[in-house]
Amino acid sequence: MRFLNKSAAMAVVLAGMASIAMPVAAQTSRDGIEGRVDRLEREMRAVQRKVFPGGAGQTVEPQITTPDRSSPAPGIPASGVVSDLTARVSALESQQSALTGQIEQNQYRLRQLEEAFTAYKRSTDARLKALEDGASAVGGNAPATGIGTTPTPTPAPRPTTPRPTTPAPTTSTPTAPVPGIERPSTGDAAEDTYTYGFRLWQAKQYDKAIVELRSVVQKHPKHRRASYAQNLLGRALLDQGKPALAATAFFENYQKMPNGERAPDSLYYLAQALVKMKKPASEVCKVYDELTQVYGDRLSEAMKMDVATGRSASKCR
Fold this sequence. Notes:
This protein has 317 residues and is mainly α.
């Protein structure tokens, strides 16, 4: 009888222990999942700070709200809580994967931008260096700064007067009158001297034309005809068979008076002078490139056709 009573008592104790063990096990499982959820939420916040450094209003809200954390009644299985926590974990893992993918895409785009900028800078530096080398090889007093370093000029309307050229170093003593060529007298000394120099150039009196045209540049450097005179002097030198001096005159007109009305013409004739000097086609093409890039919107149709012909003759790309 005592033995039976002891057995019955033991059964009661075991049943009580079992009823206590079930919620404890469920609570342990729940604590493990909650720890996993907390870890994922911390990681999610770190990822969001990385993706949205701006902060306010840009974070991604969880797709599943936090479930009620009220403890289940003793003895009731915690399967509902576990299911809720599992759903939260899945949602967090999905969001974390999406944000990680977004970070990788942003990093890839940033690398592309950096590579594109590096390539652009490399090609620009190479082009400027090549232009500087070409300019330094033009002749005696061509500056070492290069064509590419000149400031971009402000477009100005192209005049109808014939294209003038740059003057080479000569004396600026007024020339003696040439029979049949009238020196104008309008009261504008720069205009009159340029017009007379142009008439001399037309009559192929190149030496006398050079003196008159250079006088305009020296005495009236701010006058609009200074650009005309400098350019026309270069053409006179080119017609005389002096391409090196002509190239120097053309380059000086472009460098010193980039906003002048004949600066684009000087670049075109600079290319022609380089051809006469038998310079490599690559140097000639660089000058044509500079002309198109700097003055493309102010070139006449005739000039564009001349440039296209020159590029074709030099086999420019």
